[in-house]
Amino acid sequence: MFPHYDVIVVGAGHAGCEAAVAAANMGSKVLLVTMNMNTIAQMSCNPAMGGVAKGQIVREIDALGGYSGIITDHTMVQFRMLNKSKGPAMWSPRAQSDRMLFAAKWREMLEAHDNIDFWQEMVTGIIVKDGRCKGVTTSLGLEIKASSVVLTNGTFLNGLIHIGEKQFGGGRAGERAATGITQQLVSLGFESGRMKTGTPARVDGRSLNYNFMEEQPGDVNPTKFSYTDTPPLLKQLACHITYTSEAVHEVLKTGFHKSPMFNGRIQGLGPRYCPSIEDKINRFADKNQHQLFIEPEGWTTCEIYVNGFSSSLPEDIQYKAMKKIRGFEDVKMFRPGYAIEYDFFQPTQLRISLETKLVENLYFAGQINGTTGYEEAACQGMMAGINAHLKVNDEEPFILKRSEAYIGVLIDDLVNKGTKEPYRMFTSRAEYRILLRQDNSDIRLSPLAHKLGIRNMEGRMERVQKKIDDSKAIKKFLAGYSVQPQQINHYLEEKKSAPLTQKRRLDTILSRPHMSLDGLMEILPEVKEGLSKFDHETIQLSEVELKYSGYILKEQELVDKMNRLESVKIKKDMQYNDLQSLSAEAREKLTSIQPATIGQASRISGVSPSDVSVLLVHMGR
Description:
The protein is an alpha+beta fold and 621 residues long.
């Protein structure tokens, strides 16, 4: 009934879709197995992609040939570049998406791929022989053979939904949980745990009074995520902001004794940085209000996502409290918020390629690894799909360094440190964030994808080379153009910058605080004319690299030092317990994680600099 597949991907959420596409675009024959073909790429929580650090990840996925950025550009209803008031390392693109179009576009692009097959059924186990994964078993008793398997089960592994005192099995509202896999993996020696996440109520937008809310429009000149020719966003839907109040909080408190989070029914750890509304009230008792973002679910629906009002309280309490929110006095609820508890596996049980250490050719990606967020899941899926293909073809794994991508930071953190709560990416997690900006993802990563042989990268490489060449030309023009004091002093005075006393090169003026290339082009027509043939994105990239050249150089020097440690390989059979000079904790952690390089060993929690020195001495370095 089934051919032998190169890669089977279990689960068709954001991780599963990217895993399937990545392996297929490298030439693998892929089977994507999902319990429901109608919920492929479902946005289970908020209908948005990107955000702080997450936007950088989406652009990195796109630069490596993934589809998340393309899908988002085709289906977004609003675009904003966040943190523009801060430095460029913090600028983060975010798009509000049409939930239904997003899923439909993903399915369309998956079905258009001749290397991807589909099967709708629950996977109940994996086939393991001689320590290697050989395929999957299903609820119908089928055995589907493959050279490798990628598990992207999301919140479905023994999923349990909580609404007040009610609880029932499910991986998402209206969908059943997946069973069997956890028990098998535990029997094979894997360590499992429980985590929890939550989602807010959905409401009828026709019942809200937006006159009492603050409008949050999209950018006047919206950009996009993908480096390909995706359509521009010509019209946008507005989001709105409102606030809870002490009256709202008092109503919510009446249900605290029925909260599964407070009475111990939920055992899993929830996300620290995206707490439920009852958790916010409890943890931040001094706050008399909390911000809520009122987000449309799409162009043609009145359904609204109440971002910031995640809750697992009884549905009647949620509704009563909502009616106290300004603008929600006549609200109609579509469905209540809920918490969901699910199984995950400590990611320290994975190699840096996302292959499990206990079972060869088995890969984990997404929330099964303890992460939260579409973007974090999607990038793991992509990397697992790439590496599953490479493993099947006896090639070395594709590993991104911390200095190369946020994706590299995320996977390195997970594998070396593990996580005790749902892991979410932030710019602060990246020590080289001035190098890992959202504007240069294609320059950093597309050459690596091209070298790997990912399909359709040829045209992208031409774009990357043009961007590099144009940026050099822009910098050369700015270095070669000099301005007289009378041309610019009035502008410098407006910006409270010291006036010129003699002719100066424009690139030195641009490096001053509060100077922008857009502003200089407005007052210097010749500069505007000289740069008119270049696109705005490349002009902005060049400006950032000129203004922050000193910081970029310093970070690159740090990267070069760290890369020297990354190049020192550790033998696979290293017996750490024989090295008595290592601390007991270091011996335990190193034996468990089995780092591939000294650089990786240095980032393991519990391994000190002196432990690293012991390793270097032992290795004759």
